[in-house]
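Holo prediction. Input below; ligand is iron/sulfur cluster.
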Amino acid sequence: MECKQAKNMDYCNCTYSCSRKGICCECLHYHRKMGELPACYFDAKTERTYDRSVEAYLRARR
Ligand code: SF4
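Structure of the complex:
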């Protein structure tokens, strides 16, 4: 299966400088391992804090 990185970039909202950008499988695996969520779970304001914790996600959803 070919990597869909270029297509994934149409949906990626991550503003952090990162080599995993658009490589969703690596991005998700990395943040899951850290007990976090990837950028695409967060609204623009929360995403820019780079706090990818579940707590930050829940706070933003309240
Ligand atoms: S969400 Fe995390 S792993 Fe994914 S591109 Fe952004 S900084 Fe990198």
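Residues 14, 16, 18, 20-21, 27, 30-31, 38-39 surround iron/sulfur cluster (CB under 6 Å). That is the main takeaway for now.
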